[in-house]
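Entry 14. Structure prediction run on the chain below.
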Amino acid sequence: MSRVLTGKDQLHKLFSAMTEQTFQIDFGVADPPLIDYLSDLLVRFTRLDVIFKVRNIVGQRLEEVAEMMMEAEHCHNTPKAEIHRHIGDFTLFWTGVYPEALKRLKGFDRKDAMIDYQQQGKRSYFLASQLTGKTTDHASLLLRLSDEFELCSAGLRKVRAEWEQTSTK
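Output returned:
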């Protein structure tokens, strides 16, 4: 009996193929754990509740990096490493997949107006790697995300261009 694919399965296969193509063929990066992480990020961030999953002490979703950074310092609801990883994911998603949204996200009337999303993303992945434990594979992956943030962001922009091109065919 064959397994029925759900929309999430199909989406994961699509993003996996596009991410693998982009990073291995176009960028020459053969790092399966990194590519898998980025594919999974794309699938996870199709849901708004995941993009804005960090909440404050009263349960309100935090929509700005500055607010998430403050929550990481106080750690009311979520472990510090998890918040820093999410900040890395959040900044990578917006700088890579939807960089045109940064103008609004960093508007002059927002707390994020002065935050450099790339630098904060690199810093947050680094902090998450240190808080996770230096010897784990997950910590190593988070450190690579920090070190290769710009490459990952550029790769995600190319993946978006690929899916937009595919959707117009």
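The chain has one domain: 7-167.
Filed with the rest of this week's runs.
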